[in-house]
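Re: beginner question about structure tokens

> Can someone show what the tokenized structure looks like for a real chain? I only ever see the sequence side.

Sure, here's an example I had lying around. Input first:
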Amino acid sequence: MRKKLRVAAYAVCVRDGQLLLARSPAPDGTLEWVLPGGGMEHGEDPLDTVVRELDEETGYRVEVTGLLGIDSSRHTFRRGVLRRPVDHHGVRIVYEGRVVGGELRNEVNGSTDLAAWHDLDAVPGLTRIRLVDVALRLWHERPVHGRVFAPPPTGPGA
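And the corresponding structure tokens:
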């Protein structure tokens, strides 16, 4: 079985009771909300990754104001009938960020198609990935060991 490690950095940006999210298509085509952020390039520092990704996906310049924690997941994926399964290990570094400049815009020719602010109390009703719940728990609870285990998403499309 082929092994793949993906390290990524994301930011929780909350302003005036709203959370900044980006929308991305799932492998089955379902549109789901994700935290802005993404994969590290080889040799890139995770803090630089999150700043770059936020700019690419939302148009905002952000200041990282804290490290909230790390989420790790492991899944086996099978893609196509002739391809070997992949043991995928994702390590996601979650920061807290504050918008310091730029203007909200959608990403062009990227992994997301829409960026928007959502009321915090509306997030449970969104079709979203698990990391959104994990990140919000990290933001609320601020565990000293930097990790939580969130229940699976609920709401439409979950």
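Each token stands for a local structural state, so reading them left to right follows the chain. The mean pLDDT is 91.
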